[in-house]
Amino acid sequence: MKFFFTFILIMCLVPLGMIWAGGGQEEAAEIVAPLVEEEPEDWDAIYEAAKVEGLVVLYCLSSRVFDIVESFKAEYPGIEVEAFDITGVDQVDKLSREQAAGVYNVDVLNLANGTTLLMEFLPQGLVHNYVPQTLLGGAASVDVIPQNLREPLLVGTIESKVVFFNTEKYSTAPVDSLWDLTRSEWKGKVQMKDPMLTDENMNFLQMIVKNADDMAAAYKTEFGNPITLSEGIENAGYEFIKRLVENDLVLTTSDGTAAKAVGARDQSDPPLTVSVASSKLRYNDSKDMVLDIAWEMTPKMGISKANYIVMANEAPHPNAAKLLIRWMLGDEYGGAGMTPFFVPGQWPSRADVKPAIDIVLDDLVKYTWFLDLEYIYDYGLPVRDFWLGL
User: Fold this and answer.
1) CATH number for 215
2) Can you give the pLDDT at residue 365?
3) Is residue 60 in a domain?
4) What is the extent of the structural domain holding 165?
5) In angstroms, rounded to a whole number, what is the distance separating the alpha carbons of residues 168 and 284?
6) Which among 21, 189, 272, 351 is most buried, taking Cβ atoms within 10 Å?
């Protein structure tokens, strides 16, 4: 069982650019083989079957879902879409309760809760992997979506959780270390969505603890002396969390609230964010804001996480679900159903799409920690308990 979990993690979130090393993948791949038809998919037939179904139900982590609905319905007349803007935490809870009761409402889920998906839902059969064949490589084509981003579960996009600053106030980032956020000059001026409302922000804290040695080294670089831990504190990761909270960290109910507080114009003393979705860079265009990311921070400026697109177990409208998943993955121009998510600070899983920002996907390894889902699953609960204790 341990081998199975490890395989899942390596195949899904191995650092970008790395090559699989080691044996046994064929045996494990049989366990988590993606739901792909052996026969070539006939999309005309799938559309006809989907029109008979007449409906597809989507849970999505973003309010941008409603833009997908309109474009999908225009492309595929005769199929209605019931879309719900639901946080990942609520999607997990809703799907668990419904399927435990034998209720099968949803067809497609778009969420970032990788630990639950890969460690629980996929092995338990609550979700299935579906990858449209048009996005797979073959004898005459290159994979549109690389294997590590489509197995064992399909990744739609990747986002980072970052430190934002206001470029109208600061020509360059006013901080260059995570430890700067614990300094007195930023007391009460760092905003983050409450980690109890989103897995990703709790994951950020968990990765801080996992990389405690790097946090200790960054502290010494920043202040010139080794860190002194508070009584009862185990390592520099926990110490950072403690000091961040004690510096009057401002908790919000959404990433958008935090980003708007930082990026609004005409501020004399704007705050910063920590662990806020990098895709909020789009607010510069859509809301006339002045946000930028503090990329060059030690030891890292945040985390990067996958946004998955999965098919629910016993999806009541499977053909419409296939059409919708293919639509959400867009085209080589970042168009079709990808359009609402083809924004600065959000990276498509498609290898044939140039990101809407100069930082390419492979660069994220330099600036961020990719989530170690096995660590989070095995050791994340003590971090959550520590947070609650603060």
Assistant:
1) 3.40.190.10
2) 95
3) yes
4) 160-304+383-389
5) 12
6) 272
Which pLDDT belongs to residue 136? 79
The H-or-E segment that residue 118 falls in is none
Q: Quick one: which of 107, 115, 122 has its CA closest to 59?
A: 107
205, 207, 368: which is closest to 293 by C-alpha?
368
Q: What is the pTM of this model?
A: 0.88
Same domain, 240 and 297: yes
Nearest to 363, CA basis, from 75, 3, 15:
15
For residues 298 and 312, give the distance between their C-alpha atoms in angstroms, rounded to a whole number: 39
CA geometry: angle 213, 195, 376, nearest 5 deg: 50
Co-location of 154 and 53 in the same domain = yes
- Domains of the chain: total: 2
Please spell the DSSP secondary structure of 119-175, one letter per residue: IIIHHHTSEE-B--GGGS-BTTB--SS-GGGTSSS-EEEEEEEE-EEETTT-SS-S-
pLDDT band at residue 142 under the 50/70/90 scheme? low
**Distance between CA atoms of 314 and 145, rounded to whole angstroms?**
25
End-to-end Cα separation, the chain, in angstroms: 35
Q: Is the pLDDT of residue 26 over 90?
A: no
Strand partners, 157: 307, 348
Residues 180 and 241 sit within 8 Å (Cβ to Cβ): no
